[in-house]
Amino acid sequence: MDKDSEGSSFLNRLGRLFAGKNATHVEQAIIEASQEGELAAAEESMLLNILHLDDLKVENIMTPRADIKGTEAGTSVAEAIARILECGHSRMPIYQDSLDNIVGIIYAKDLLREAAPAGNQHRPVTEIMRQPFFVPETKNAMALLNEFKARKTHMAVILDEYGGTSGLVTIEDVLEEIVGEIEDEHDAPKEAEIVPLNDGSVKISGRAALDEINQALGINLESDEVDTIGGLLSHIAGRLPQAGENFTLEGRVFTVEKADKRRVYSVFAHPMPAPADEG
Question: How confident is the model at residue 179 (pLDDT cuts 50, 70, 90)?
């Protein structure tokens, strides 16, 4: 069976399974269809992930501001090419003065096209950059995917409630929520977010999800306000904690290893010290 026939068969099965069902019943229908063998596990997973895009805010899938690789508006074509080669990205934001003022997006293919004629390497990137696309943190992923398609663009700048740059989201980030991680030959291996150490402590990324920490450490960190350990410690402190601050939670001492004015980068989780013997 060729790929077109396989695709048609899948769509035909979906039509049979969900005909006459309203949105509130679709998720249950997907689960039941998988249990009855009408859908493969991978098909079930993708369909459920698509349904959940409506509940997923872009702030939960964005590359945070601290990890944005951009370049200043005064950069030349040659300098921008070197920067893109260094970072391994095909698109890069251009900012004036700071990342809170992103004025454009530069594409690697535009840079290469521009650099070909002699003398163009010193041309400023502001002359060939494209207009940035701004969306708020609260936008849901399905709406953003539809806007990406309508605008024929692949990157959005995410703004916080004050109009500052909060992060970046690409169309790949949204698609990964449906099909899982997409890696290419240029992607650097990702560091583990939860790493046990020889002394019995655990090093944890500030962006590690509470659910993953609970599973790894056998504890029960919960919050209705935040999803990550960095967010939880900031919520408890009422501000961004500084390196060296300690928090005792669920029988563990969480020590902030690295933080700045915008983000907790890493935390150590230590077992509670044994009480001293009396006498």
Answer: confident
Domain 60-179 has CATH 3.10.580.10: yes
Sequence spans of domains, the chain: 3-55, 60-179, 194-271
Measured over the CA atoms of residue 46, residue 92, residue 191 and residue 208, the dihedral's sign is negative
- Please give the Cα distance from 157 to 105 (Å, whole number): 10
pLDDT of residue 33: 65
- Determine the longest span between alpha carbons in the chain, in angstroms: 84
Predicted model pTM: 0.60
The fold adopted by the segment(s) 194-271 is: 3.30.465
Q: Which three-class secondary structure string do you get for 38-62?
A: CCCHHHHHHHHHHHHHHHCEHHHCC
